[in-house]
Amino acid sequence: MDINKATSNKVRNFCIIAHIDHGKTTLSDRFIERSDLGHKLQTNTQMLDSMDLEKERGITIKMHPIRLGFKLNDDEYIFHIIDTPGHVDFNYEVSKSLAACEGAILIVDASQGVEAQTVANTYLAIEHDLAIIPVINKIDLPHANVDETKQEIMELLGIDESEIILASAKDGRGMDEILQAIVERIPPPRGSSDLPLKALIFDSHFDTYKGVVSHIRVLEGFIEKGKDIMLMSNKKEYQTEEVGFFRMGSQSTDRLNAGDVGYFTAVIREAQVINVGDTVTDARYPTKNPFPGYRKAVPMVFSGIYPINPNDYDKLKSSLEKLKLTDPAFQFEQETSAALGYGFRCGYLGLLHMEIISERIRREYDQELITTAPSVIYKFTLKNGEIEYIENPSKFPERFHIQSIEEPIVKASIIAPSDYIGPIMDVSQKKRGQYLSMEYLSPTRVSLQYIFPLSEIIIDFYDQLKSVTKGYASLDYEFTGYKEEKIVLVSILVNGSPVDALSFMTVDTQAYYRGKAILEKLRKLIPRQMYQIALQAAVGGKIIARENIVAYRKDVTSKCYGGDITRKRKLLEKQKEGKKRMKMIGNVEIPQEAFMTILKL
Q: What is the DSSP letter of 105?
């Protein structure tokens, strides 16, 4: 079949959404095998997960579009499929992909049932007014609970049992029914190719040879090579160099019509020119109604990123700009640190997002980094009436300027087997969680609603939750606002000198415990000197915790093998004076490993 051409009523645009590890990418593999590409590919798992990181961790980090041809009911169809991530930190990737589609396949694992991210993604799809095809996957597993999962989906979507498709993406069961449902239930794209060009940029990436490659969904009109286009957000004009669509790589074509999903290049070298959510239109005959754009992703977790070699600063800046192209939810700005030099303050959607970004910079751009401890953004109301949002401890105002400090609050939904309600409540209480409600999804599964300070759940809450529920709990959260709290700045002092990279903001009641934990770690990591080193944690001018690194002791009295005790005293006093002088002029060098280990805390 000719993959370049298809009438719009034979085109279907849809994405695959689910909770993490419910089988989205495996289902994508089955689609590829059944399509016109099938005979060209060897059996390979996770074909659309192109990053090594995705394959190693078994998760999808980036959305992956692909154009496939199918022959169904003696007709030829073109499916534009977008495989999306399932983790809560990559929720922004899901919301971007939904805007480029008319339908969504919602996958639920038969052995785990409806989970927190299943609910969140379903509501996103409903907000975008998409046709939803519910699929219960992994029915081949021995512990699959199909009947209970059906009930949970019926309650979630308010649908009839007959609309739910049973499948196993692993062995291909249910694929015929899914393909048929896509044709019947998902509407073809609307929009005419005769109207002025209106295309949505829903993603982008940087190519060394082509420059910025913009991923687009053509809503109206058409785009072809050599067309004069304009980006409506900044009114910049370009001429397209190449247009095409995504197969198992990129494939150029003559033109993309209304309803098509593909890409264009236009020798755009400045990464910041392209904004995801922007509208591309004809430079001569622009469309009157641009796409409204996306709700801006709000970073929830912040940390500093510094190059280990200060000379790599410019290279790191260029790497971050290119990375932001593929991940608009990632944000950064320049900052300096007395201990670490020049670097960047970066914002992420969550802790996994932060971990993935750091790893991608190391692998894709060959950069060695130091990442500082994650923090959240606090709202400061000053006595002069000004409001400041501060996430960097070095910008903490003087205490006498502060009227009040508010910390970010999130509403969390925890879904788990009902046997673990007690342990979940214990863990939540320790994290300053405020109980809201509890709802039974089925006789054996429960959904708990809590209000948490964001700072409490970004570090190890999810790990603790998984631990107490033997891996069965799932977590989803959304930002709800700010709440006043007594927040203090804890400074770490080494021999009386503050180390700004190790300072942090925390709630007053936890200052001692967190400060003590860092000092105990530092004590083991900083090499001993010939004099004692004092490690202190301070709030304002008050020392709240202290550790000592004991000095190396040279036995100066070993040569005294007799005689009066005053000889030994004289030698010890002389040594004491020497150590005092040494301490006055001695600088403590904190090794790189110490920073890296502490910052992992």
A: E
